[in-house]
Amino acid sequence: MSEIPAPDSYKSISSPSSGVYRDLGSKFISLAYPVSSEEEVKSILSAVRREYFDARHHCYAYRLGQKGELWRVNDDGEPSSSAGRPIYGQLLSNELSDILIIVVRYFGGTKLGIPGLIKAYKSAAADAIANAPITVKQAERELVIKFDYIGTDTVMKLVRGMGAKITGQNFDITCTLFVKIALSAAPDLIHSLTENGFTVCDSNGVEDF
After folding, report:
1. What are the pLDDT digits (tens) for 69-126?
2. Are residues 58 and 97 in the same domain?
3. Could you tell me if 173 and 98 lie in one domain?
């Protein structure tokens, strides 16, 4: 895979992919999805469980955020750490985030043992990743800017001049602008805005700058 070009960037996948691994009659179907929230993860998990309702296990792992700060593994009835952890290990070794991998197992009648399970879930996840289109995503910060209408031109000049993307706006006597900006550029934009007397909050409306 290519080197990450900037500190704000991280690797993910751009579209779903799949893979498969077979051993002693058991079939492990791996499904990889690009995701951006835990709500999206839950929705996909529900859909996969409905589609593969006759499978014995639906094991998974996911990572979210630039540094994978949100993550979870699930063995779904397999022996502890024999399924979710090997899947998660593939996300780590490939330096991928904003990704969910589910491995659906159809039992073939012969137990594989813990070493065999670890190999199977790891190999299935690796196959889905090998078949996935890798992309580089930009880590961004969401900001809410509040200002009087008279300051509109100045705010717009600062926001556009620093490459921020406007995601929402409300213009009245008191105006609100919602923007996203590269993580490393956010401090400079915040400083410029507050220096000009404008109020800047995080996406939860908290002034902590």
Report:
1. 999 999 999 999 999 999 999 999 999 999 999 999 999 999 999 999 999 999 999 9
2. yes
3. no
What range defines the domain where residue 120 resides?
9-137
Closest CA to 91 of 55, 65, 57: 65
In a domain, 1, yes or no: no
Nearest partner of 121 among 82, 63, 79, judged by Cα: 82
Same domain assignment for residues 149 and 126: no
Residues of the chain short of pLDDT 70, as ranges, are 1-6, 205-209
The conformation of residue 88, written as its DSSP 8-state character, comes to H
- Considering 82, 103, 137, which residue would you say is the last residue of a domain? 137
Tokens of 67: 């540094």
How remote is the C-alpha of 17 from its chain's centroid?
15
Asked whether 26 and 106 are in contact (CB, 8 A), the reply is yes
CATH number at residue 166: 3.30.70.240
Tokens of 44: 């996909």
Question: Are residues 147 and 188 both part of a single domain?
Answer: yes
In the sheet that 57-64 helps form, which strands lie side by side, from edge to edge?
17-23, 26-34, 99-106, 57-64, 70-74
Q: Which residue, chain included where needed, has tokens 């639906």? A: 58
At CA 196, angle to CA 195 and CA 198, rounded to 5? 100
**pTM flag (> 0.70):** yes
